[in-house]
Amino acid sequence: MALSKKDLARKKANLRSKLEMLEKKAKADPLKRDKALHDEIADVKKKLAE
Question: Which of 3, 12, 14, 49 could be a cystine partner for 7, CB 3.0 to 4.6 Å?
Answer without folding.
Answer: 3
